[in-house]
Structures are given as C-alpha cells and as structure tokens.
C-alpha cells in the first residue's frame, strides 16, 4: 500500500498489534494456570484427567480451582468480546476519525487488562461480570454511526459535516478517561 | 477515506454494526440469565459459588439451569461462528458484489436471532445444533470464490466476467429468503 | 475494487477462505462427535439431557467422553486463536509483504490441522496445550512491526527500507517449514 493509505490506518494497526500481545499474555496465563492446576491435582489425587477437569468436588482443591476457573472464564469473556471490539475499532477509525478511535481502543485495552488481572486477589467475586468496557464500545459504535450518517448526508444533500464530527469526537474522547 | 471508497463498503459496515448490536443483546441476555440463576441458587442452597456453577445435581434447579445452560451454549455457538461470518461477508462484499453480500449478511443475522431466541420455550431440544445458517455462509463463500476466480481470469486471459457474476449473484440472493 | 488493489490482497483472501473451510470442518467434526456421544449415552442410560452433558461420572462412558471433550476443547482453542491469527495475517500482508505472509498463514493452517486431528489416537495427552503455532504468529507479528517501523522511517527520515524488509522476510519465511 502507498504511504498515504498506511497513514490512515497506522494508529489503528498499532492498537490492534498491542491487543494481539495482550491476547498472547492472556493465553499464556491461562495455559500456565491450567498446567499448574493439573500438576498439583495429579500429585494429590491421581484420578483420571477428565475427572480433574470436569468435576470440582474436593473441598481442599476448591480455592485454587475456583481461582483457575475464574481466570479461564475471564479470559473466555475477553476472547468472546474481541471480534466485536476489533469491528467497532476499525469501523470507527475508517468511517469517522482515526485518532479518537485509536485512543478509545487503547483505553479499552487498559480496561480489559484491569478486568483480567485486577481482581485476582479477591475471593468473593467468583462470577465476574460478563460484559466490560461497555462505555468505550458504545463510543466507538456511535463514532461509526456518525461516519455512516455523514456519508449519507453528503450523498443526498451534499453537505459535509466530517470536520465538525471529527472535532466533536476528538473533544469528547478524553471523557473516556473518567472511570 | 474518500466518498467513493466509503460507498463501496457502507452497506457492509451497516450490516456489521447491526451484528454488533445483536452481539450486545446476546451478551446482555447471557449476563442477565446467569445473574438471575446465581441469585436464585444462592438464596436456596447457599453453597459455594463454584459448586453452583460447575455441578448441576439438584432436581429442582434442573429445569431453569438447563434453560440457562442452553442459552449460554447457544450464545457460545453464535460467538464461535462470528469471525467466520465477518470474514465471508467482507470478502464476498469486497471481491465480488456489495449489495447481495449485505443482503445475505442481513439474512444471516435474522437466522442467528431465530436460533438464539426461537426455541427458548421448548424443553425437548436440549442440545441445539452447533451449526446454523450454513446455506448463507456457503452462498457468501461461493461469492468470494467467484470474485477470486474472476481476478485470475482477468489476470491470465484478460476477460472480465465481473458484471455477469454480479448479475447472477444479485438474481440468486433472494433465494436465501426460502426457509 | 480495481484490479491492482485486489492483486494486493488476493493471496491473503485465498488463505483466509481456506481457513474458513477448515473452520467449517472443525465445526462439523464437533457437531458429529457431540451427536454420536449424545445418541450413545441416551440409549445406554436415558438420563436427562443436561446430566449427560454436564456430569461425567460413569466409568464406561469415560473413554469416549474424554475423547469428545478433548475434541471440543481443541476446537475451542482453535476458535479462540482465530481472530488473533486473522489480525496478524492481514496486518503483516498489508503493512509489509503479501507473499511471505500468505505462506506463513498457510503454514499456520497446517499446524492447526495437525493440532486438531494429529493426536486423536493418543489417550495420555488428555489436556492439549492451549497455544499452538506460536512461532508463526510471532513471525507475522514481527512482519507487521517491521511494516509500521518502515512507515515511520519514511515519515520522519524519508528513507525507505521496504524492498530490503520484503527481501529479508521472503528469505526467512521458508525457515517456518522446519518443525
């Protein structure tokens, strides 16, 4: 691709590559946990493999298994939401404006990291919320909608609000920093 | 991006955004169900959290848990098939023809919605089929193949069947409406 | 899209379509296994459907259920890694060089196939590794990084190493064939 086209997507590509690194981190963490878990159970009980994994009965294994299961579930939730995130990130960046979209994407990656590792110490919150980063996904979604809306405004009325929309989104995006 | 390029992808982008809304609906439904389920079990039995989730023994909880589990599984199947759907939607739309691809994508979203909510009332079909919307995915896949084939025809023989392919796909696509 | 633009992505599109076929094969395999499993259990025990699926107690069903569960887990791991693979494949192909990226993508599909069907006969390895094809993903990731790095080199210093990077990646990519 030529220099100009790459310039239109380079920030989005960087955010996407960071998210790939994060995916790798999650996968590594889950693999590590599941290996540790399996090794420990094997030494202690020596039952068949599928029993270790699919029945969780023993009271002594409960605590560590709960931790492991929670990590697996959280990683699963992250994996489930990943295609949706990519879709809104790229459609917001391509249809509307690149810089705020990349910034919101970066925020989402922070929220995801916090969702995955932040509550590892707690015992009580055993079933983590299924959805996280709703506000950021919504922001990116609205940006995409604004881009499509603008396209049809140009198409039918010939009036271009692109710069106006870009200014608004760039101004609004720092609000995502508010927790 | 300039107006013309956006015009080539705007319908695909709209279908994709609708699918994002649907993903959000599924995630919301699953979170809601799992919360209700957890709350009810907690009041009744008060066991440890992981037991509630990973063993399904009690006969009274069976019916509602089966419902919940089915919904979770169905949502999981939808999530699993989502990247594949996006890939064939966009490659069919970009390599071949936009309008029939977007139409087929819309059909797929309807089928997915029906797959998720349609059989909620039934008790018998406890393990839903893993695959749904095969015909639509196949249609989009064949459109992509036709696009690639056409590229190599132009490349090697210089003969362009693009308009012919576009006419055929546009004519064939309403057949997807037949259940 | 015009002929030249399609030429820039056609190999990536072909690899992606092959991966779609493979996804379909995995989904078919899982559906088939789960149906066989359900059918056999039903004839033998006749318990409620959710018990069959969510408790794995009987010693005679163990072996086949372990097999089935392993297949499901493996397919799940493939599905989980799929968006990440697509992202690095396309960013490596678009930002850096198409031919080595498509070649590495093809290698990844071979590794994935081997991961899914290769060890079906073994009984011992009951919990398959969570991650596979690390080296190929890393190669594609480094290609994307090189592409982004090159963009900023042109942007800030005006020096273009694109041909150099393309030669290096094309030379290095056959090394992925070494197991």
What does this structure look like?
The structure is a homotrimer of 179-residue chains. Chain A is mainly α. Chain A has 6 helices and no strands. Chain A has helices at 3-44, 49-54, 59-95, 98-117, 134-157, 162-172. In chain A, α1 packs parallel to α4 (98-117), α3 packs parallel to α5 and α4 runs antiparallel to α5. The longest helix of chain A has 42 residues, at 3-44. The first copy, chain A, is elongated. The interface between A and C is medium-sized, with 32 and 32 residues.
What is the helix tally of chain A? Answer: 6
Oligomerization:
homotrimer
* Low-confidence parts of chain A: 41-63, 123-127
Structural class of chain A: mainly alpha
Averaged pLDDT of chain A: 74
Which descriptor suits the 3D outline of chain A?
elongated
The tally of beta strands of chain A, per DSSP, is: 0
Give a brief description:
Three copies of one chain form a homotrimer. Helices cover 78% and strands 0% of the residues of chain A. With 179 residues, chain A is mainly alpha-helical.
What is the strand and helix layout of this fold?
The structure is a homotrimer of 179-residue chains.
Chain A: H1 3-44, H2 49-54, H3 59-95, H4 98-117, H5 134-157, H6 162-172
Keywords, separated by commas or semicolons:
homotrimer; 179 residues; mainly alpha; 6 helices; elongated
């Amino acid at each position: 691709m030529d220099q100009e086209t790459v310039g239109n997507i380079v920030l989005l590509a960087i955010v996407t590559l960071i998210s790939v690194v994060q995916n790798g981190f999650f996968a590594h963490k889950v693999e590590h946990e599941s290996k540790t878990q399996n090794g420990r159970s094997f030494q202690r009980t020596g039952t068949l493999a599928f029993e270790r994994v699919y029945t969780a009965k023993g009271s002594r294994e409960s605590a560590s298994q709960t931790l492991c299961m929670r990590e697996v579930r959280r990683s699963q939730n992250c994996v489930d939401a990943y295609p949706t995130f990519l879709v809104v990130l790229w459609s917001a960046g391509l249809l509307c404006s690149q810089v705020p979209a990349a910034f919101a994407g970066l925020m989402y990656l922070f929220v995801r990291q916090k969702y995955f590792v932040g509550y590892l110490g707690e015992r009580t919150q055993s079933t983590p919320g299924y959805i996280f980063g709703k506000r950021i996904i919504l922001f990116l979604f609205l940006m995409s909608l604004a881009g499509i809306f603008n396209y049809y405004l140009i198409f039918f009325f010939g009036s271009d609000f692109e710069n106006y929309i870009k200014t608004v989104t760039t101004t609004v995006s720092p609000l995502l920093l508010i927790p």
